[in-house]
Amino acid sequence: MSSPFRSLGLALTLCCASLATSSLAYADQVRVFAAASLSDALDAAVERYQQQHPDVEVQTVYASSSTAARQIVGGAAADLFISADQQWMDWLGEQGETLGERGDLLANRLALIAPRDSTLEDFIPDAEHRLLPLLGDDERLAVGDPDHVPAGIYARQAFEHLGEWQELEPRLARADNVRGALALVEQGEVPLGVVYSTDAKASEGVRLIGLFPTDSHPPITYPIALVGDTPSAAAQALRAWLASADGLAVFEQYGFSAAVAE
């Protein structure tokens, strides 16, 4: 009959071995804060990267770029930040955060969408095709909040360019991020919404009505940067891979294009 102390010692040994195995499962960890519009594509890219680098654990946090930037300034641990516009990357640096290897990663387009069963004909939103007449008396147009969400900021710029901002502003259904605006259209809560073309492609519940002219708003680019004074080798390696041909190929499958270097 074994001693209870021997049994206890064996149990502790097995427990310690289990903990050691768990801690060694991932040699490195990289935390990525990214714009909500990247969720599907970045998840797929991370999955491919971890298949190639099984010793690295990549954790992703998605929110509007403004929320993600504020979370980082508020103390959230982040190794990489990918914003949906330059403004919030600039703001993060202005708050004293060290941004390393900053560069433009991806490009996107601004899209007008409707619920899947909408009978609205496709068109290009421009000065000859106004949006307000398409809304009923009590209907609204879904956008990311133009006060802070990049997709909403781009939408406001497009509306201003087309001369409709004053009329459309009180008719907006403002969402906390672009995926929130997409959901309002998917659920039929609104007849129209403005999101990125990649959001429209990712959803089976909406129809792409048309893309806004590229000259109606500034170029939609997604800057990427390492966060912190001493970025880890694992974070640097992931940042380099995301910008590589292999990484960009994943994003292109989801409708993004590589940012054009100026």
From TrEMBL:
The UniProt record gives the binding positions of molybdate as 37, 65, 151, 178, 196
Q: Which domain of life is it from?
A: Bacteria
Pull one GO CC term from this UniProt entry: outer membrane-bounded periplasmic space
Q: Name one GO molecular function term.
A: metal ion binding
UniProt keyword Metal-binding present: yes
What the entry lists under InterPro entries is as follows: ModA (IPR005950), ModA/WtpA (IPR050682)
UniProt keyword Signal, yes or no? yes
Q: Where are the transmembrane segments?
A: none
Q: What keywords would UniProt list here?
A: Metal-binding, Molybdenum, Signal
Q: Where is the signal peptide?
A: 1-27
Q: Name one GO biological process term.
A: molybdate ion transport
A Pfam family that this protein carries is: SBP_bac_11
Self-association and partners? The complex is composed of two ATP-binding proteins (ModC), two transmembrane proteins (ModB) and a solute-binding protein (ModA).
Name the protein family.
Belongs to the bacterial solute-binding protein ModA family.
Mind telling me what this protein is named?
Molybdate ABC transporter substrate-binding protein
Q: Say which species the protein is native to.
A: Halotalea alkalilenta
